[in-house]
Amino acid sequence: MIRLQVEASWVTAPGCPREVAKLIKDQCKARDPQAFFTGGASHFHLWRIREKELQFPTGLLWDVVQQLDAVGIEYEIDPHLGYVVDPELVVPDGIELRDYQEEAVKVALREGRGILGLATNSGKSIIAAALVQSFASHDCVAVPTIVLVVRAEGVRQMTELFRRCFGDDLVANETGEGKSYVIMTYTKASKRDLSPYLLVIADEVHRVGAKTYCGALATAENAYHRYGLSGTPGGREDGKDLYFIGATGPVIYRMPQDALIKRGFSARAAAIMLHIPGDIHPAVEEDIAALVLLQQSGKLSRGNQFKLRKLRAQLWRDVEAEGILENEVRNIAIVDAATQAQQCGRQVLILVKRIDHGRRLRELFAFIGYEVPFAHGNSKGRDKIYTGLQSGEHRIVIGSGIYDDSIDVPNIEVLINAAGGKSLNATKQKLGRGLRNPGDKSLLVIDFMDTGHKILKKHSRARKRAYQQEGVSVRKAESLSEEELAA
Fold first, then answer.
1. Does some domain include residue 403?
2. What are the residues whose beta carbons fall under 8 Å from the beta carbon of 359, sequence distance 6 or more?
3. DSSP letters along 82-113, please?
4. What is the CATH number of the domain that holds 384?
5. Fewer CB within 10 Å: C terminus or N terminus of the chain?
6. CA-based diameter of the chain, in Å?
7. Domain with 199 in it
8. What is the Cα–Cα distance from 354 to 134, expressed in whole angstroms?
9. Block means of pLDDT (10 residues each) for the chain, length 487 residues?
10. Is 351 within a domain?
């Protein structure tokens, strides 16, 4: 029988037999299908060996135990969890929970830790506040809590809600000095010791696929109770679900976007994918083809394997530049769609991935007499742009990745996804920016069926599939109709 010594962040298996250790290691590793390994291990993992002790993240305990049960290996759980309680649901004053919010909080309190899969507009911040209040009411005192968010704007929004619920004396913005409830970005938390906190709530926990963020959560060694909140709680293309599940725990509750739309809590949406013609033939394709022939014949050297990987990366950069960033036909279509929607009285948010793409679009708008603000990570006045977007002062705004998640923009009526790409999760996060207002008007999503290269075609099909998975109807079109823009 093996002994699993369970702590808040790590599980240790002292004296674990070699064959069992290998089984556990295999359960606690994953491979990035997009990665190229020049040597050594071809998997990333979250376990490590200290002398004869096997160690892996507590969030993966459920998976490990399931695997041990499947092969008939006996084990005992030896808990060293520190602060563990079983609180009842208590809602902060002035807050009223929707039925699924109440259900989500009750599940979280019962399970003790794990991931709540909550789509955009589900009220993740309110659920976080209810969790904090429930723990505080159980202990009759504020439990030291840290809430982690992705961006500074998320810190501001969460801080405002917590101060309304709990008062200024208990809530701190970033510093955490002398306060019970601290709201902080993952970036700042990665440079702090989180051991003083007994409760951790990680918003947009899918971002913990980054090793730095995962490491930050691991320092919360006294917080067995930890919850991840995410609109896209699984299915990362790079396989790094392993990181955020390890840091928090398995998915314990789901409320998908299509269910919110059906219940009337999110805006109904329709997507139009405009056809973008093209014929792209990057020069590196000939070199790639030659190396692929060698690979198929088994004659590709290790040096040429690395060269092939670099060439394929260069191919995507060339295709992205010619097919998306510098594609005049596509960029004019973006500008035309935005101005037509604005003339129909609708507010428009254009999402881009690259800063140079956003600048190029802004210049096109200026050329036809439109002054359109572009908010990105390095832009001055981005807070003012965001305020103007919320108030309706800015009718067209270009935004980079800072608007991809954790940002509340409820007035958006037309969302133009100009970024391209194939990530299902990233596309769903972008879609969520426009689904926050379930008013009279539905959300119109404008995307592009890029046909200039087989890579672009594949990416376009992936984005279409992401919209359909979220309950959004998708139509291919050559142009936009005035009826669709005004609907």
1. yes
2. 374
3. SS---PPP-PPTT----HHHHHHHHHHHHHSS
4. 3.40.50.300
5. N
6. 75
7. 99-255
8. 42
9. 92 88 83 49 52 80 93 94 94 93 97 92 93 93 92 87 93 77 90 92 78 76 94 70 86 90 82 95 92 87 88 94 96 96 92 94 96 84 82 90 65 89 79 61 89 96 91 90 76
10. yes
